[in-house]
Write a structure and sequence with these properties.
The protein is an alpha/beta fold and about 425 residues long. The chain contains 11 helices and 21 strands. It binds ligand LLP.
């Protein structure tokens, strides 16, 4: 459920009309509903109420400070993958004691920063990384809290670019090597082995693969506990899918129930469950507001050229993803739909937000809302074609605030320097 609805013929985010936001702040602009963010977080939290748990929002999905602060106030932790995300999470008020650090390529300076802040866990993805973390911790004369990210070789049935738990993927430590690597980890006096972790992929639309992978990991956890390894955390990753068009992903309740049932089969385990949801919290809490610049057609196609492009929302171009597109001003009833390509100004044929999409007729100058853009939208945006990255707005009931200004032209070369010989 989200809070983007028509009131009369105008599309609103909670109590604020999207047309008003566009008038005031221009386009393209991301608009987030705080009520939706809170609702999704609350539902997810409740779904796991039967087990001790910590929800670490995956910052890569949406790293805006106002979004993070909203979740921080609800008690969320953070799943981070870089030093930048670490500082964003801390700045938004997420305590270090609720931050887990994942990712295959953690740099030494990032490891050191996270150790100094005393984060909860490093999810370690290789033996080389394990050695590096141990060395950096030794240099800093502290103990690094670690979990091993295990790759259970389970097919999550999602787009290949976002499937991470297959044997062939770069992520995690193969399940059958994990015991050996735990032995190695236990041999470092500067490491404190605290947990076990897995994440098999994103936009998962059935609970089966998740349950299968968690099953493998819990089995391993049980075995390690029996051998006296002091595990306290079972991180089951993120990945729960959302509805972009006609998918029927499990609800957080289905997901929570499946996880709880599985864990209960293993009896009383002294483990706090960590989850790392991103999309399911933020995806349907945001839209990308854009204006139609031109209509054009050729013998084959009808195009709506809009002022948002692949640099603003990369998902359709990169994964062929579907995002619903709704007119901000609803057309009258019984209009005939036309098939259009919604394209941006970027000079690539891969620059589209929708292809051959049935839409009501939309005039030049009209506003459109690209739906379900709250996760992996702004956070994947770029300056390609020297386009200014979009503004971001947070809505709460009938209030709205600009929570990131649209970039200015001078931002484009702020970090460039002249070569002395030019
Ligand atoms: N934990 C780890 C270790 C991850 O790698 C990810 C996502 C998550 C948690 C959060 O997954 P979520 O709950 O959001 O599915 N750019 C792609 C998605 C990439 C996901 C990368 N990892 C997209 O736009 O679909």
């Amino acid at each position: 459920m989200d809070h983007f609805d028509y009131r009369g013929d105008d599309l609103f985010c909670e109590g604020v009309s999207l047309a008003r936001i566009a008038e005031e702040l221009g386009t393209p602009t991301y608009v987030y509903s705080q009520a939706t963010l809170k609702r999704h977080y609350g539902v997810f939290d409740k779904a796991l109420a039967a087990v001790p748990h910590l929800i670490c929002f995956s910052v890569k999905a949406n790293s805006n400070g106002a979004v993070l602060r909203t979740l921080a106030r609800m008690g969320a932790g953070a799943d981070i993958v870089s030093g930048g995300e670490l500082m964003r999470a801390l700045r938004a008020g997420i305590p270090a004691s609720r931050i887990v650090f994942s990712g295959v390529g953690k740099r030494e300076d990032e490891i050191a920063a996270a150790l100094k802040q005393k984060i909860l866990l490093f999810n370690v993805e290789s033996t080389s990384e394990l050695r590096t973390i141990a060395r950096v911790a030794e240099e800093l004369q502290c103990k690094a809290p670690v979990a091993l990210r295990v790759n259970p070789d389970v097919d999550p049935g999602t787009h290949p670019y976002i499937a991470t738990g297959l044997r062939k993927s770069k992520f995690g430590i193969p399940l059958h090597h994990a015991r050996e690597v735990y032995e190695q980890a236990l041999g470092f006096s500067s490491l404190e082995v605290r947990g076990i972790d897995c994440h098999i992929g994103s936009q998962l639309t059935s609970v089966g693969p998740l349950v299968e992978s968690v099953g493998h990991v819990v089995e391993l956890a049980q075995d390690l506990l029996a051998r006296g390894v002091n595990l306290s955390y079972l991180d089951i990753g993120g990945g729960l899918g959302i509805r972009y068009s006609d998918e029927t992903p499990p609800t957080p309740d289905d997901y929570g129930a499946a996880v709880v049932t599985l864990l209960k089969q293993f009896g009383q385990l002294p483990l706090t469950v960590i989850t790392e949801p991103g999309r399911v919290i933020a995806g349907n809490a945001g839209v990308l507001l854009t204006r139609v610049l031109y209509r054009k057609s050729n013998e084959q196609k009808e195009f709506l050229v809009v002022d948002a492009a692949m640099n603003d929302l990369l998902r359709p171009s990169l994964y062929g993803s579907f995002h619903g597109i709704q007119p901000v001003r609803r057309p009258g009833e019984r209009v005939e739909l036309e098939l259009v390509d919604v394209v941006g100004p970027v000079c690539e044929s891969g620059d589209f937000l929708a292809q051959e999409r049935p839409m009501p007729p939309v005039a030049e100058g009209a506003l459109l809302a690209v739906m379900s853009a709250g996760a992996y939208g702004w956070s994947m945006s770029s300056n390609y074609n020297s386009r200014l990255r979009a503004a971001e707005v947070l809505v709460s009931e009938d209030r709205h605030a600009l929570v990131r200004c649209r970039e200015e032209v001078a931002d484009l070369w702020r970090h460039e320097r002249d070569a002395p010989w030019l």
